[in-house]
Amino acid sequence: MDDGIARNKTYPLWIHWSDHILSFHEVAGFEHIHFSTQEERMDYVFQKTSHGFRIQ
Question: How far apart are CA 15 and CA 5, in angstroms?
């Protein structure tokens, strides 16, 4: 149902800088990052994986 109120949906990602790991799910010890669009989040993921980060 559309009540006319815009929802502020964010697209989260968790990152562990020293181990070079990205996660789409909350993980203890990982930094939480929010993106305003799915495209922005995936661009960030592709950038990081091209620089050696792994996806968990």
Answer: 31
